[in-house]
From TrEMBL:
<comment type="function">
    <text>Core subunit of the mitochondrial membrane respiratory chain NADH dehydrogenase (Complex I) which catalyzes electron transfer from NADH through the respiratory chain, using ubiquinone as an electron acceptor. Essential for the catalytic activity of complex I.</text>
</comment>
<feature type="transmembrane region" description="Helical">
    <location>
        <begin position="53"/>
        <end position="79"/>
    </location>
</feature>
<keyword id="KW-1133">Transmembrane helix</keyword>
<keyword id="KW-0813">Transport</keyword>
<dbReference type="Pfam" id="PF00507">
    <property type="entry name" value="Oxidored_q4"/>
</dbReference>
<dbReference type="GO" id="GO:0008137">
    <property type="term" value="F:NADH dehydrogenase (ubiquinone) activity"/>
</dbReference>
<keyword id="KW-0472">Membrane</keyword>
<comment type="similarity">
    <text>Belongs to the complex I subunit 3 family.</text>
</comment>
<feature type="transmembrane region" description="Helical">
    <location>
        <begin position="85"/>
        <end position="106"/>
    </location>
</feature>
<feature type="transmembrane region" description="Helical">
    <location>
        <begin position="6"/>
        <end position="32"/>
    </location>
</feature>
<protein>
    <recommendedName>
        <fullName>NADH-ubiquinone oxidoreductase chain 3</fullName>
        <ecNumber>7.1.1.2</ecNumber>
    </recommendedName>
</protein>
<keyword id="KW-0496">Mitochondrion</keyword>
<keyword id="KW-0520">NAD</keyword>
<keyword id="KW-0830">Ubiquinone</keyword>
<keyword id="KW-1278">Translocase</keyword>
<keyword id="KW-0679">Respiratory chain</keyword>
<dbReference type="InterPro" id="IPR038430">
    <property type="entry name" value="NDAH_ubi_oxred_su3_sf"/>
</dbReference>
Length: 118
């Protein structure tokens, strides 16, 4: 028990030491107008630095991430489908998950979020 307390205290102490070292090394001592201005290959900045982006592209990227995570969740189910120790409830849950995934794709398709051009 004493070893656990000592190791936890040592970890917390080491964490604080690394935090303060990072804060000290991250401080910029030379702050001026030139340092805080945006740099574009030696030229004065042209236009705004806040460039509007396509909301459709953002939504498509979010949809990709969501379905990518769902595909990763399917990997264990695919590995277990052929084995004999899976109970019927597992197959039902897999089927419900796939149906929800399919309904989500159909919804996004009807909404037009999967269209590349518009």
């Amino acid at each position: 028990m004493e070893k656990v307390v000592v190791s936890v205290l040592l970890s917390v102490f080491l964490g604080f030491v690394l935090l303060f070292v990072g804060l000290f090394l991250g401080v910029s001592f030379f702050v001026g107008r030139e340092k805080s201005s945006p740099f574009e290959c030696g030229f004065d900045p042209i236009g705004s630095s806040r460039v509007p982006f396509s909301l459709r592209f953002f939504l498509l990227a979010v949809i990709f991430v969501v379905f990518d995570v769902e595909i990763v969740l399917l990997f264990p189910a695919v590995m277990v489908v052929g084995s004999s120790w899976v109970w019927v409830g597992g197959y039902v849950m897999l089927l419900v998950f796939l149906v929800l995934l399919f309904v989500g794709v159909i919804h996004e398709w009807r909404e037009g979020s999967l269209e590349w051009e518009s």
